[in-house]
Amino acid sequence: MRALITGGAGFIGSNLAERLIHDGHEVIVFDDLSTGRMENLEGIKNHPRFTFIEGTILDRAHLSDTIGRLQIETISHQAARPSVARSVEDPIATNEVNVTGTLNVLKSALDGGVKTVVAAISSSVYGDTPELPKQETMPYNPQSPYAVTKVAKELYLKIFHEVYGLNTVGLRYFNVYGRKQDPKSDYAAVIPKFVTAALQGEDLTIEDDGGQTRDFTYIVDVVDANIAGFEHPQAAGKSFNIAYGARISILDLAKQIIAITGSASRIEFKAKRKGDIRHSLADISYAGKFLGYRPRFDLEKGLKETIQWYQNG
Predict the structure, then answer these.
(1) Is 165 part of a structural domain of the chain?
(2) What CATH number did the domain enclosing 13 receive?
(3) 294 φ/ψ sector (left φ>0, alpha ψ -120 to 50, else beta)
(4) Which of 146, 173, 218, 293 is catalytic?
(5) This model's pTM is above 0.70
């Protein structure tokens, strides 16, 4: 398989690239390095089946040329402008990358004869509806510009399958964590922030009261889901929850990380961010049916591996 990964120098994309190389596939990473980092690709950058191309998904001519010239068979579309907070600050930039960029990827894939496009969506499409667990049949209820772009992205996937016949699969990620996740960004996810703070003996800061809950998904399971999207044609035109299927409060998460690291860190609280949701939990049975998705890492196992990676880094 010859796979193109947009945003392949980022957290999820680089983990997927390593796995595909390990499994014997050819990998082309297409990334503008706005948030991705070349150090994430250090282990495979000189591999004979690996190619890096610096480019933006907003440049459809460059994207189309790459897909056609390299005869790409499958695409994992991970490139995006992340963060709810960033989207609140600048909704236009978020829309350009996440919506227009996705449309460029899909049209270029269609024109280039690509077989399948698997794309990152987000659990944010559900919003803050009280029903738990979240099921794919629930209506959209976005609470931020970022979430709106993920809804639009998913609808474009569906239309490109139904109207143009392109095999597309959407993966609604629930709070992905693991190796290579950047803890230094102003918009970093909670687990890398907590882990690095605990390892340094610094305070763990919780936005809101800590009672909010999340369903955390280890990176290995997310990589498995992307590969399953390539391999299961019956999943075409559908979107799936990708999660572990259990939830924990942010306060309990902080306490667990402090316990695993043996840290003397304390917990402090600050105001809630705009656009954040209160509770999240996924029903993953639909992904199990059509993708054969079975997560292998519960939170404790995933946290221990994650903490070990940060300690070794």
Answers:
(1) yes
(2) 3.40.50.720
(3) beta
(4) 146
(5) yes
